[in-house]
Amino acid sequence: MKELFDLDGKVAVVTGAGRGIGEGIATLLAEAGADVVCAARSTDQIDETAAKINAANSGGRAVAQATDVSSEEDMEALAQRAVDEFGRLDIWINNAGGSLVSAPLTELPLEEWNKTLAVNLTSIFFGVRAATKHMKDGGAIVNTSSLASEDPFPGSGHYSAAKAGVNMLTKTLAHELGPQGIRVNAVLPGFVPTETVKQALSMEDKDFGPLLEQLNLPAGRLGTPRDIGACVLYLVTPASEWVTGQCMRIAGTV
Question: How far apart are alpha carbons 163 and 165 in whole angstroms?
């Protein structure tokens, strides 16, 4: 059973790894044995994530790489860092993304539209192109999408459009990269009260109790970064070797 979820000897890159879901993913992959390159723009946050992983000494090692995911040059450098540091690249997690702006599409500034697509969609394009150059023995790619890719949220049309694009990129890439032994899947997280989500929705911890009652989730609770990380772990291990092109809702509900 252990070999189904064993990542010993594998090397992973996780973008947006400084906090929240990205930190949860990076930590779980390392616990499973993978060496991890933690990427984000905020060097202090990814330094902290890498330090926590290394201090735990429970699996793989970790290093930090400052990265702007909307920069093709930065993404190329990120992939190269993984190879230079650990000798190979097997797993790539396109997790960075988000938008803190809420506005009707007719009032949304063009600058925010372009920024949202760059960070949430074009970054996937750059990341996959950079990663696959080094995946000589096959690999696994997981993209973080959102429930907003399937369900409309007024005020977040720009974000929803970008994440819907992520879903179609995932399915297309699964077909295109399958012959190279590379699987591509996406996760669609439900409500996980990370600091970014709190900021985007102007919420505090005290607001989550009433929200949980309103959502009436069958699972009975809100999500955690580890919930999402566990699904990602499945998608990059031998346990899911016959799974590709899937957009999986991880939301505590149907």
Answer: 5
The DSSP code sequence of 112-127 is HHHHHHIIIIIHHHHH
**Catalytic site residue 234?**
no
Structure token digits, residue 206: 């005290």
Return the closest-CA partner of residue 64 out of 90, 84, 43, 34: 43
pTM: 0.94
Report how far residue 249's alpha carbon sits from residue 53's, in angstroms, rounded to the nearest whole number. Answer: 27
Q: Which domains does the chain show, CATH number per domain?
A: 2-250 (3.40.50.720)
Q: Which residues pair with 93 in a beta bridge?
A: 14, 142
Q: Rg (Cα) of the chain, in Å, rounded?
A: 17
Single out the catalytic residue among 159, 187, 222, 252: 159
> DSSP secondary-structure letter at 148?
G
Q: How far apart are the C-alpha atoms of 65 and 79, rounded to whole Å? A: 10
DSSP string, 167-195: HHHHHHHHHHHGGGTEEEEEEEE-----H
Q: Return per-residue pLDDT of the chain as tens, 254 residues.
A: 788 999 999 999 999 999 999 999 999 999 999 999 999 999 999 999 999 999 998 889 999 999 999 999 999 999 999 999 999 999 999 999 999 899 999 999 999 999 999 999 999 999 999 999 999 999 999 999 999 999 998 999 999 999 999 999 999 999 999 999 999 999 999 888 766 665 655 666 666 667 666 777 888 888 899 999 999 999 999 999 999 999 999 988 87
